[in-house]
Specification:
The complex is a heterodimer of chains A (360) and B (472). Chain A is α+β, with helices and mostly antiparallel strands. Chain A is 35% helix and 24% strand. In chain A, helix 11 (315-331) runs antiparallel to helix 12 (339-356). In chain B, helix 2 (179-186) crosses helix 3, helix 4 packs across helix 5 (294-301) and helix 7 (340-353) packs across helix 9. Residues 1-12, 14-76, 165-192, 245-302 and 375-406 of chain B have low confidence and may be disordered. The chains are: A alpha+beta (360), B alpha+beta (472). Chain A: Residues 31-216 form the BPL/LPL catalytic domain.
Chain lengths: 360, 472
């Protein structure tokens, strides 16, 4: 039986739906007689690799206000920004035919021949122009019988937003998670002003079709949510859940060292070291060390105890921290209160906020 | 009665993985759906149901071993063989990877093709699957360790009889890369992240459903039977399009006039409120959706591994009478008369005439590998009948028996029901009827063969004395 080739264009612009659809095809189709090219675009979002740390890679706190979603995909590789100016390709085949370079060479060929873009495939399997300006990032997933390689193509994205979300605030994070290698990027539209992602879809579909001369390749527009992919909607909901996106973060520590100003009790400066362990996205445990007094360490200990068990960076965590501050202020009222203690308390809480906010 | 209980307990323990069986283990009740056109549609009426009915499944395996026989080609392991499973070449000139996640731990039972771990190299995330059946006895790396290609990844204590030689590779059938559904169907461990009771897991496994695909509506997101059922109803509609497509493309398959199939599809007793609605061209099940999308979707869907189903009704009245006669005799000998050995024997006899059902495909679906001996697996459900009444209550939903690799065909026997039928002189007689539904890999088995095999098997069961004639 000859191989069937299909180009499937997703009508959805929801990152979770598209990721779930892509995963569904990868798991359920028999690729011994099938090659697929998926073409898809998403509303603004940031996508991290399967075992990456979003806080390490992304400015998580600005996402909600900016209206940018966060997603975790199943393939490896680094963090990327998508919006409608970005075109995603997924080349899905049987495992034996997996070949990233061939796929990327195909894209480069189209860019050169159709759009006069002097693109080339780099050593790291990115697509670059002028040697260093990246226009595409690549990632892949390999299983026993099937594999896919997907990549982005920066046609005309909002570069200001890209830069903002991909500039993380991650002070203090210590992790073994795979980190992204940042590179300067450029939009294709800056090189050739006619280019838009929407116009490129039919061109790439046509060029892909022309690859296989013996059989006409089917080019089909798909609405992934139309019920033909049982289980996919539920998978999309799972992909959008905090437990998947944040809960799959490999365990990491936040370690900060703060110098306390000298005071009546301690003429020489002292320090307090906070080491917080976060596993599966939840605050697991912590240790407090350093040369600071027991009183100071005690404040830190009781404050952090209030957030153990909370999802890191969640509303719950911040609420617990504030509640802890309020209640400890009540206990130091009255005759026991002196300005030194009060001073320490405020200082410790400021340090905690800085720590948990991952800021300098 | 006690002997039977012991038999069932033994089978149940096997199901739990405590005993390594030669028989394929999966139990439960499945109804058939069929993509066939039927020569006769039965007019639905309501029927009473036997309360203490029991369910049995028989599957025809392609595995090369049967009790003490061993094929010459594959050297089988003995007990306590421990093999080092090495990290094989991933390609792209990669020499080392980082272990990112383990899907097993020490003591986990694994089957060939089950996922073991996920490793990453630069931009690729790779799922490493097991080559062997057995139990994990050692993990050589921790998460975040760098693993060199060619070094040992895990140690596996091989299951008895597990082929270890390279010829074992020939027997790998083509499978969808649905790692998680293989996981759920091949192992009863808690690898699935979805919460569900063993009974629900079984239903999911029967029907090749990945539990994590199903939205659980129970407590803590628990997946309930109703959730699996709802999922199946949706999947049913998608799959019916596959079958319709296959029917259109291969009309000679099942509807061949030479096949004398008095086949009818079982209808659940509760659903006879609308007798006319069952007369759709696909046989039984839900009416099809609009055609406008069918073209596009079936093209995609048809490229999934194709199954087709065949179902029939077997009149076991003679067998039941035989059992009555022999029961006392058996009791005096201290053995329990069960239908099981008769079903198996009949299947074995029928197989000699249809050897293709005892074969399976290689990777490219180019070669058929015929097995020398018959390996017939049996699974027995408990008499508690957990699955039977609940699936029965679905209302219009049929589930196909799962074809688990390396099988090419699988049969599911329904419960034995006492139903009225017309006798030779148009009088009403009491018949003991059992539904049988077969599911087969369409790449290997054509409908006519399946039907003929089923008819032969059926004739043995309806006329037990015939078996004596054909025995060697």
């Amino acid at each position: 039986m000859t191989k069937k080739w299909q180009v499937l264009i997703s009508k959805s612009h929801d990152i979770y739906t598209n990721l779930a659809w892509e995963d569904w095809l990868y798991r359920k189709m028999d690729f011994s007689h099938l090659n697929l090219l998926l073409l898809w675009r998403n509303a603004p979002c940031v996508v991290v690799g399967r075992y990456q740390n979003p806080w390490k890679e992304v400015n998580v706190s600005m996402l909600e206000d900016a209206g940018v979603q966060l997603a975790r995909r199943n393939s490896g590789g680094g963090t990327v920004y998508h919006d409608m100016g970005n075109l995603n390709f997924t080349f899905m085949t049987e495992r034996k035919l997996y070949n990233r370079r061939t796929n990327l060479e195909f894209i480069v060929k189209v860019l050169r021949e159709k759009y006069a873009i002097p693109a080339e495939v780099s050593q790291r399997d990115d697509i670059v122009v002028k040697g260093t300006l990246k226009i595409s990032g690549t990632a892949a997933k390999l299983g026993r019988t099937a594999a896919y390689h997907h990549c982005t193509l920066l046609c005309n994205v909002r570069k200001d937003q890209l830069r903002a979300v991909l500039t993380p605030r991650n002070k203090g994070i210590h992790t073994n998670a795979s980190i992204s290698v940042p590179s300067p990027t450029v939009n294709l539209s800056e090189i050739n002003s006619v280019i838009t992602s929407a116009d490129m879809i039919p061109v790439f579909a046509q060029q892909f079709s022309d690859l296989n001369l013996s059989e006409k390749i089917a080019v089909i527009e798909i609405d992934p949510s139309d019920g033909d992919y049982p289980g996919m909607e539920f998978a999309a909901t799972d992909l959008a859940s905090t437990s998947f996106i944040y809960g799959n973060t490999p365990k990491f520590n936040i370690i900060r060292d703060f110098v306390l100003p000298s005071s009546q009790d301690t003429p020489a400066p002292t320090n307090v070291i906070l080491d917080i362990l976060i596993e599966k996205g939840k605050i697991c445990s912590f240790t407090i060390s350093g040369t600071a007094t027991e009183a100071v360490k005690g404040i830190a200990t009781s404050a952090l105890s209030a957030v153990v068990g909370c999802d890191f960076d969640s509303q719950e965590m911040w609420a617990a921290l504030s509640a802890g501050f309020a209640s400890s202020s009540a206990t130091t009222s009255g005759t026991d209160r002196n300005s030194g203690d009060e001073h320490h308390r405020e200082f410790v809480y400021r340090c905690l906020i800085q720590t948990l906010n991952l800021q300098e | 009665m006690i002997a039977r209980k012991r038999l069932l307990t033994h089978a149940w323990r096997q199901a739990l993985g405590e005993i390594q069986p030669e028989w394929l283990l999966h139990s439960g009740f499945s109804r058939c759906i069929s993509g066939l056109s039927h020569s006769k549609m039965r007019t639905p009426t309501a029927f009473p149901v036997l309360s203490n009915a029991r369910t049995v499944e028989i599957s025809l395996l392609g595995k090369p071993h049967w009790r003490n026989a061993q094929t010459a080609a594959a050297a089988a392991s003995t007990a306590n063989d421990i093999i080092q499973f090495k990290l094989s070449d991933i390609g792209e000139g990669i020499a080392e990877v980082v272990v990112k996640e383990w899907f097993v731990k020490i003591g986990s039972k694994v089957n060939q093709f089950d996922p073991i771990c996920e490793v990453q190299s630069d931009k690729a995330s790779v799922t490493i699957t097991s080559r062997y059946d057995g139990v994990i006895s050692k993990l050589h790396y921790n998460v975040d360790d760098v693993a060199k290609v060619g070094t040992a990844l895990v140690d596996i204590k091989l299951a008895e009889g597990s082929p270890t030689s390279p010829t074992a590779k020939l027997q790998q059938p083509v499978q969808p890369d649905d790692m998680s559904s293989l996981q759920d169907s091949r192992s009863l461990s808690d690898k699935s992240k979805a919460l569900a009771t063993p009974a629900v897991r079984r239903i999911a496994m029967e029907n090749n459903v990945t539990l994590s695909d199903v939205k659980g509506t129970g407590r803590d997101g628990r997946v309930l039977k109703e959730d699996v059922v709802r999922y199946l109803e949706n999947a049913q509609q998608a799959k019916q399009k596959i079958e319709e497509r296959i029917d259109q493309e291969a009309p000679s398959g099942i509807a061949a006039p030479s096949v004398k199939a008095k086949n009818t599809c079982p209808f659940p007793e509760e659903n006879f409120s609308a007798p006319g609605s069952r007369q759709s061209s696909s046989g039984c099940g839900e009416p099809l959706k609009g055609i406008q999308k069918a073209m596009v979707k079936t093209m995609t869907a048809a490229l999934m591994i194709p199954h087709f189903g065949y179902c029939d009704e077997i009149d076991l009245t003679n067998l039941v009478h035989l059992r009555k006669q022999l029961k006392d005799l058996a009791k005096s000998r201290g053995i329990n008369f069960s239908y099981m050995p008769i079903f198996i024997k009949a299947a074995s006899l029928a197989l000699t005439q249809f050897p293709i059902l005892n074969a399976h495909v290689d990777d490219k679906v180019e070669n058929l590998i015929y097995k020398g001996s018959h390996n017939i697996g049996i699974a027995v459900d408990t008499p508690n009948g957990l699955l039977v009444p609940n699936i029965k209550n679905i209302g219009g939903t049929y589930a196909k028996p799962v074809i688990l690799p390396p099988t090419v065909a699988i049969g599911a026997l329904g419960k034995i029901q006492v139903l009225p039928r017309f006798g030779d002189h148009d009088q009403v007689v009491k018949c003991h009827l059992m539904q049988i539904s077969w599911s087969a890999d369409h790449r290997v088995i054509d409908g006519a063969t399946m039907a003929r095999f089923s008819n032969l098997w059926k004739s043995y069961l309806e006329n037990p004395s015939m078996m004596l004639l054909d025995m060697k």
